[in-house]
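Hey L., structure's done. Input below.
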Amino acid sequence: MPKMNNQDPVLVVIQLTGGLDFMNTLIPHTSQFYRDARPTVGISSNDVLPFNDSGSELGWHPAAAALKELYDVGDVAVVQGIGYQNSSRSHFRGMDIWHTCEPDKISTEGWLARATRDLDPNNENPLTAVSFGRGLPRALAAPGVTATSVGDLDNFGLMTKVEAEQDRQKNLEIFKRMYTPAVGTGIVGDYLAQTGRDVLTGIDMLRDVPSQYSSSIEYGQNPIANALRDVARVHTARVGTRIFYTQHAGYDYHSLEPETHPRLLRELTEAISDFLADLREHDAAEEVTVLVFTEFGRRIKDNGSGTDHGSGGGAYIIGEHVEGGLYSEYPSIKPEDWLYGEDLRHTIDFRGIYGTVLEQWMKMDPTKIVNGQYEQLNPYTVTAA
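Output:
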C-alpha cells in the first residue's frame, strides 16, 4: 500500500446539499451576459476577489476569501463545468446519481462503499469509512460494507451504551426513510440488518477519541465546522480511517440567495481552512485530499430572488499536494450556448473526477467503482505513491 507522510492516503468528501451556485462562487464578472442574466443575485466587479492573474475574467465571491487564500498558495484545484449528460434537476435523483455513479438506473451500491470494500475486503475495520452527520449517505451504503455514521462526536462520547444504540437506530431509520422509495424495502432491509451489527463496534472505538485531541485552532460554530473538526480528531487518532464523509446543507436557494449564499460560503471555506491548519498542526495534512461536490449547478438567469435548479456546476480538490489552478473549461455563458436555453453545459463528467482522486491519490483502480473509464484531470504535484 502506498504511503504519504508514512501514512496511507486519506480522502475527505464534503457534500454541499441543495445545489451550489457555481456561477456566483467563481464569477465571470466581466461578462455582460452575466450582468444581464443576474440583475438581482449578480456580484459586482467591484466586490469580487480577483485572481492573481490580472487578466482573468473570473473572480471569487467575497465570502469565499478563505478558499481564495488556499487557492493562491496552490492548494485548490477548481473543477469547472462538472456534471453528466441529461443532468437531473431532482435533488433526490441528482444526489442519488452522484452517490452511485449510475445516471440511467437505480443502483444498490454507493461509489464510496465500493471503494471501502476494496480497501477493506474482509470488513476487518468498521472505521475504514466514517460519516459525520445524521443518516448514512447513499455513497457509503452497499450490502456487505460497513461504514460508521456518527451524528456528533462530543455528544456521543457522553452517551451510555443504551443511548448510543438508540442514536444508531435513529441514523438507520433516517437511512431507511431516505432510500426505501428508490431501491425498495428488501434491499434496504438487508443492508440495515447486516450493517447494524458492525456499526456499534466502530462507534465504541471512537468513544475515547475526543479526549486524545487538543488543538490551537478555533473552528466556527456551525455544522460543517463541527463535522470537519470531528474528522480532524478521528484522523489524528490514527484509527485506520481512509474515507471521511461530511455534509453542509442549505444550498437550495430559490429565494433569498443574496443573504444565504454568502453565509454558507463563509462557513464552508473558513471551515476547510481551519481543518487544513489543524491537520498541519498535527503533522497530518500530507496524506489528506479533500473533494467538495454538489448535486447540480443553478440556472444562468436569476428568478428575482434566487436561482433555480440547473447544471454545469463546480467541484474542488484541495490539499497540500494539489497543483492549484483551474481545470476543465468554464461553461460558455453566451446565450446561444445555453443548454435548454437556460443552463450551463457540463464540460467534464463527474465520474472522471472521482476516478482522478481514486486512481491518482488513493491508488485504486476506479473502473468498477465509477462504472467505466472517464477523462481524468492531473491535479496533483505529488501522488500518494
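The first strand starts at residue 10 and ends at 17. The mean pLDDT is 89.

-- N.
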